[in-house]
Amino acid sequence: MALNLLSPPDVKSVSFLDSTKSFHTHALSKLPGGFSLKRKENGGRGIQCSVHQSQPPPAWPGTALPEPGRKTWDGPKPISIVGSTGSIGTQTLDIVAENPDKFRVVALAAGSNVTLLAEQIKQFKPQLVSVRDESLVEELKEALAGLDVKPEIIPGEQGIIEVARHPDAVSVVTGIVGCAGLKPTVAAIEAGKDIALANKETLIAGGPFVLPLAHKHNVKILPADSEHSAIFQCIQGLPEGALRRIILTASGGAFRDLPVEKLKDVQVADALKHPNWSMGKKITVDSATLFNKGLEVIEAHYLFGAEYDDIDIVIHPQSIIHSMIETQDSSVLAQLGWPDMRIPILYTMSWPERIYCSEVTWPRLDLCKLGSLTFKAPDNVKYPSMNLAYSAGRAGGTMTGVLSAANEKAVELFIDEKIRYLDIFKVVELTCAKHQEELVTSPSLEEIIHYDLWARDYAASLQQSPGLTPVLV
Fold it and tell me: Where is it chiefly localized (predicted)?
């Protein structure tokens, strides 16, 4: 089963993938959206995107230095959690439970898991809570009937926003998934809250809008993703201009050892067999396609200001080195540890401090027991997602959000067995190619959200029929 574009004439003769990481002079071309690709001035190596508006300022321009006197609270650090019943939220609360002298929860926002939310309220006693599904408010109130002191409950999107900008919170952990996390994050930034960032769309889709806003309000965006936390830890105290290259490590996913010619026959169950650990379906498929790493390249660009030619991906099957940086003198710094999301989450909450962790709940890394660490270059034929991500990143503006949204919809279609594995790449490429006609280089928040929804709808409109050959065969 393959894909058939509803309007074949809309597919451009110049593929969206013409703006991939490897460029030659004859490949440079004027693209829609008011921007062009040109060579860098430093020796002519690589390309950069030149737009009418300046690129958004990075959250951490190659170095991380704490500001003296930034602490504004007494006792445990007050935090809000958006997405408290999800994976990030529950792990954050595990950290709070283990360190009650370091952190306290003032507000929680959840989706529809009222039972778990009620348990969290009883244990952590927040002042404010929100449940996205307004129809569940009465059920939540019943679950809290025995409490002497009950939190204020504000349902719906407005409730999530109020949790994010709670006046007592110093930092907000953004664990909510998708573009639903954008408005709460913006509200938190406007209220002067530092962001413990676990929501990818905040920068991948919202970077052109969010980053200038964070600079305006002097808000710190601290990455909770393990790869970006590794980079963030490695740049601590670097002098200005010392960062030369970012090296993102990738496990390689379910098909890292499968010959590329066999990908046309893989099934959903195959893609969900991650060689290292058990995760949700969407992220496991993203690991198999390497779209997760492509999106992390874009996020690294927005976080640290590295140009796309200076961000590399390397396959590291053991997943012990979480990422590396290279400095101008060719030194390479790495952050290592067992794969445990609690470590980067903890660092976003405690930075610039380091909090002692018990060996019982936080096993220490033993390299002698581990034995060996191996690396190999990723295969661009097996993983066309990388070229798509670099292309979208260079296009900038709304293109990166479209890439992410189209991939999310394509993965959903694949998991539902409506398209084949290789069709994921084609859906994303065709959606990005179509979006070149309307690309916005400096979008508003409303435009970012609009094109996220547009990309999902357009990707879903690419119907199944025996007409179109997938991208790799």
Answer: plastid
Name the least confident of 47-51, 177-181, 235-239, 469-473: 47-51
User: In sequence order, which residues have a C-beta less than 8 Å from that of residue 257 and are 6 or more positions away?
Assistant: none
Predicted confidence (pLDDT) at residue 20 exceeds the cutoff of 60 = no
For residue 254, give the DSSP letter.
T
Give the tens place of pLDDT for each residue, 260-304.
999 999 999 999 987 766 667 888 999 999 999 999 999 999 999
Measured from the Cβ of residue 326, the count of other Cβ atoms closer than 10 Å reads 18
Give phi and psi for 81, each to the nearest 5: -130, 120
184-200 residue pLDDT tens: 999 999 999 999 999 88
The total of other beta-carbon atoms located within 10 Å of residue 373's CB is 15
Write down the pTM of the prediction: 0.87
Find where tokens 């694949």 sit: 414
Q: How many CB atoms lie within 10 A of CB 51?
A: 17
Helix 281-289, helix 423-435: angle, nearest 10: 80
What CA–CA distances, in Å, run from 89 to 26, 100, 292?
Answer: 49, 16, 20
Token pair 């993938």 is found at 17
Distance CA(237)–CA(64), nearest Å, equals: 6
Token match 């664990």: residue? 175
Q: Which amino acid is at 184?
A: P
- Give the chain's length: 473
C-alpha 37/C-alpha 375 separation (Å) is: 32
Nearest to 60 by CA among 250, 229, 312: 229
Output the average pLDDT for the chain: 87
Cα 342 from Cα 356, distance rounded (Å): 13
User: Which stretches within 191-311 are classed as H helix?
Assistant: 201-204, 207-216, 226-234, 268-271, 281-289, 291-304
Which stretch of DSSP H or E encloses residue 423? helix 423-435
- Give the span between the Cα atoms of 108 and 131, in whole angstroms: 9
Three-class secondary structure of residue 268 per DSSP = helix
What count of other Cβ atoms lies within 10 Å of the Cβ of residue 203?
Answer: 29
Cβ–Cβ under 8 Å, residues 110 and 131:
yes
| Enclosing H/E stretch for 160 | helix 156-164
Q: How far apart are CA 97 and CA 89, in angstroms?
A: 12
- Structure-block tokens of residue 262: 């066999």
Closest Cα to residue 205, out of 433, 35, 397? Answer: 397
The per-residue pLDDT for 280 is 78
